[in-house]
Design goal:
6 helices, about 70% helix, about 0% strand, single chain, mainly alpha, about 100 residues
Length: about 100
Amino acid sequence: MASHTAPYRQPAGDPSGALTKVVALFLGMLAYAQWVYPVTYQWRRVVTAVVVAVGLTVLGAAIDIPLAAAIAIAVLYPVGLLPLGFYLPEELRRMLRLVPALR
């Protein structure tokens, strides 16, 4: 009975439009936030984190992996940042203190 009352919904369209809207929203929020409370961001680190996240997402989607492998890819995200010089020296020292096997 409820299926007759709900109108047929067509696909939303090209996903690049949604991505464009999200990026525009991000840039607008960033500009407003900088106007209200200026903060100097470490843009190289922000871009590195985004590129690695997108790369792992594309990898997971491209090879159509099961849930356990997807979780493994998510766990490897911090490891993927390591060779790209993402972490500051103090962050690396703290991570080494947290992992007893690497001391």
